[in-house]
Amino acid sequence: MWPALLLPHCQSDDVCRYGRTPSGHQRFLCKSCRRAFQLSFIYEASKPGTQGNIVMVPVSVIPPKR
Fold this sequence. Notes:
Blueprint lengths: L14 E6 L5 E5 L5 E3 L28
Antiparallel strand pairs: 1-2, 2-3
Protein name: InsA N-terminal zinc ribbon domain-containing protein
Organism: Serratia symbiotica
Pfam family, one: Zn_ribbon_InsA
């Protein structure tokens, strides 16, 4: 058991190890809601909360290719 880990989605502490990512980071599985998660990220865009900070550029601003 990992008593210090809480699943970000449901705040459950009933988690177990669930293998590793291709880059070697430990993955965990919540036994309550069956979601897999990891504690560390390689890419900044994968971190929780980053998606809300990405600004989409309107298509009308980009000039057409010639």
